[in-house]
Amino acid sequence: MFDVARSRAAKQGTRFKITVEDVRRAWRAKCPVFGWTWGKGPRAPSLDRLRPELGYVPGNIAVISMRANQIKSDAGAKDVERVAKWMRLQGL
Predict the structure, then answer these.
(1) Are 15 and 61 in contact (CB under 8 A)?
(2) Which residues make Cβ contacts (< 8 Å) with residue 71, sequence separation at least 6?
(3) What is the dihedral angle through the alpha carbons of 53, 7, 32, 80, rounded to the nearest 10 degrees?
(4) Closest by alpha carbon to 15, among 59, 45, 78?
């Protein structure tokens, strides 16, 4: 996870100032978003930049599931709340 993030940051010109220890501190027993036990595919752990514009810096990373990271990458909190509200109204 660390090496993948470092490589991605280098390719994208994103700041990368974290250590493996920073990632260990961000690690939780389960996905903090969904409460899932780590697994494969959507349940796989991924390194998230809480505020992408800051890059991979201490205090700006979290380990969340690939699914949570995918959802977060596509929309902000207000957009996710709007979609959730609409889905509830549709009975979904």
Answers:
(1) no
(2) 80
(3) 50
(4) 59
Q: How far apart are CA 37 and CA 70, in angstroms?
A: 17
Domain range summary for the chain, segments of one domain joined by +: 2-89
Please give the class, per CATH, of domain 2-89.
Answer: alpha beta
Count CB-CB contacts under 10 A for residue 31: 24
pLDDT in tens, 34-67: 999 999 999 999 999 999 999 999 999 999 999 9
pTM score, whole prediction: 0.87
Inter-residue contact 1 to 23 (CB < 8 Å): yes
* CA pair distance 20, 58, nearest whole angstrom: 11
* Alpha-carbon span 25 to 54, nearest angstrom: 18
C-alpha separations of 17 from 3, 11, 73 in Å: 13, 15, 21
Cα end-to-end distance, the chain, whole Å: 34
